[in-house]
Amino acid sequence: MSWLRDIDRWFLAEVLPHAPAYRAKAAYLCGRDNAEDLVQDAYARVLKTPDYRAIVTPRGFVLTIVHNLALERLRRANVVRIDAFVSLDMLGVADPAPDAFAIASGRSELKRLLDLIDALPAQCSRVLHMRKVQGMPPADIADALCISVSTVEQHIAKGLALITKARRDSEAQVEKACPAILTSRSVMPT
Prior knowledge:
- The chain is an all-alpha fold.
- The protein is 76% helix and 0% strand.
């Protein structure tokens, strides 16, 4: 078998022995009718891998490819079988959008941070707002406020230090105010 390439030998030794597992996963994800096509597509992708020797677990690698190809097919399909929706839950496909709690929590945290910035000394607050909220580079802030870039950087450092201290102090106050909650968490049975 001198006509076989190194990747072919690797494929025969490391990938092909696990073919039943690939077909089973593909059948579960997209049905028995499409399983073999899905596995063949996965094999084609594996054989196109430029650095196949770096693959530590070939079986896991191919199973991941089968999984991703099944997701890709579901996304592109005009008509999706109803039983495919059952397997969607198993695929771990989550809505990437934040939920209502995450949005409310983020807004609350942003308001708290903006309040801390506003409580800083006037020039420090102005510089930090321009840098962190508006996203201006230090050179542009220096030009807008007619100060040097090093002064801008000093204001940023001072402002961040003051905000960090204020947040730490606020968390310490919460810990003092609610010691029962903190101790009950550490004593709860697992």
